[in-house]
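Example 4.3 (complexes with small molecules)
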Amino acid sequence: MLCKKLYNKAMKNFYGLFSAPNHYNDGHPESPDRFGLLDETLERISGIIKLDATPATLDEIRRVHTLAMIQGLEMAPPGTIDHAPTYVTQSSYDDALLAAGVTLACSRTVGSGAGKSAFSLIRPPGHHAEPNRAMGFCLFNNIAIAAKDLLARGANRVLIVDYDAHHGNGTQAAFLNDERVAYLSTHQAGIYPGTGAITDAPHARGRIINLPLPAFSGDVVFRQLAEEIITPFVRRFQPDFVLVSAGFDSHWSDPLTQLGLSTRGFFDLSRRLIELADEVCEGKIIFVLEGGYDAQNVANGVEAVFLATTEKSYTGGVEDKSPYPEVDVNEDIQILRKLHRF
Ligand SMILES: [Zn+2]
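Answer. The structure with zinc ion bound is encoded below.
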């Protein structure tokens, strides 16, 4: 009798990688330098498999963005396109198509059951890009394009959790009136882009949830949010796929923002989301990189997410606890629970 090698690909974790080296603007924080430590980090992590990808097609992009927006981006001369400032170069349009394509490779690999989880490590990022405009360093909304693709392939309910330090206004706009998609964003209050108030999207209570947080909210606050908001939200919505906008600018030492997560905090939050995906949707989850403007934080955060896919506890990981005291968010949590009827 032949001895079959026990190799279950469906239990493997995958990643896609595109650093867009030619999408670059001198001195701009959203640069290929953000990926500077990723190669050596990925080499160190055992058992993860890199996915091949092709650029997203026009039809796939059009599920989220208007034709006018897409054509405007294709024709835009190199330079700045908004006050964020968001920039484009000669290659940016093609780079953005490939970033979306890498994200689709990740969602399809997990959606088809060929992989357990995947992480789309791409730039330019996407969560600020609205259906009719690129903005906030973002060109095409990678995670929204992946969510639409999952729906087109038979998913009934998709959940997007966004722990970038900024509100994902583009993702919210893409699904404002789409009952099949739930969106939950944690972000620093009062910073760019100014959207994501606790009372946003009043017609979509219980489905679109925004948690603006005071500066220095960190591991303790996020642990509380995970238990008191995120867990009941996921259990009630019962998604059949979870997508995570992973922005490592919510690390306390990010140069652009002032939230308070540590690398261990990214592990804890990601681990909780993976456990919830295991509970409600056979573990179907992908992570999609958004912001994060310190290369070390990005590398550490990526490692923490991969660790969370395989380990229950954070042992041997980076310890870089925030030096700032945390703020009590109990009142906000109560308001939120009331608003969304938890
Ligand atoms: Zn951000």
